[in-house]
Amino acid sequence: MSSNHIQLNIVLFEPEIPQNTGNIARTCAAIGADLHLIGPLGFSIEDRYLKRAGLDYWDKLNVTYYDDFLEFEEKNPNSALFFFTTKGVKNYSEMQYPDPCFIVFGKETAGLPVQILRKYRNQCFRIPMKENIRSLNLANSVAIVAYEVMRQNMFQGLEKEGSMSYAQP
User: Fold this and answer.
1) pTM (two decimals)
2) Most exposed among 43, 106, 114, 140, judged by the fewest C-beta atoms under 10 Å?
3) Is the distance from CB of 26 to CB of 49 less than 8 angstroms?
């Protein structure tokens, strides 16, 4: 990866829905983020829905698999970790994200385990939403936070302008 690109790591704790993980993989490919999957996964990595949602981008990203959260911690010591949960008391956009950083999301049905949230209590953030709304879709949540990290870093390494050649007479 070039030096003018932020090293963003997207971490999914025990993801359950292959389409979400596939969409997140596509987002990772689009922004040059590495994807970290902490097991057990709720699907096979050969799942056709996973592959379909990620389209043909799987070969354009780095994916690391971990058996459990302990292995993830052991292999990424002293990393800047940020956890996203509906239980977070700080707004995700109020944080300055360092380079490199890891943004961590829980499984679709249960989020992150309470023991992880307690251990990293000062690193837990929330995406604002209306009262009495349980949660956002996982893939949408990842995209919201990932693009905030990229925005704070001036979208380093990304193509910022498209071509209007189709609009020419």
Assistant:
1) 0.90
2) 114
3) no
